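Per your request, structure below.
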């Protein structure tokens, strides 16, 4: 199990914004399971469109960099 999360920080404060729990699917259930990429995109969309977080930049772990969809 892993957590995919968003954390806000500026010059004065830092706090968590959202998180999703990721659990790797078995081989047979893999088509129905959300990936870490799906969860990250869901968080970013939620924060931008529904919450209105004023983010100019998103930082991701380097693991996410190998997928061009983000």
């Amino acid at each position: 199990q892993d957590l995919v999360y968003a954390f806000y920080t500026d010059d004065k404060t830092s706090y968590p914004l959202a998180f999703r729990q990721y659990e790797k699917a078995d081989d047979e259930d893999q088509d129905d399971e959300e990936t870490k990429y799906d969860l990250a995109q869901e968080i970013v969309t939620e924060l931008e469109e529904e919450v209105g977080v004023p983010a100019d930049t998103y930082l991701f772990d380097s693991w996410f960099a190998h997928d061009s969809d983000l």
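The chain has one domain: 2-66.

Regards,
D.
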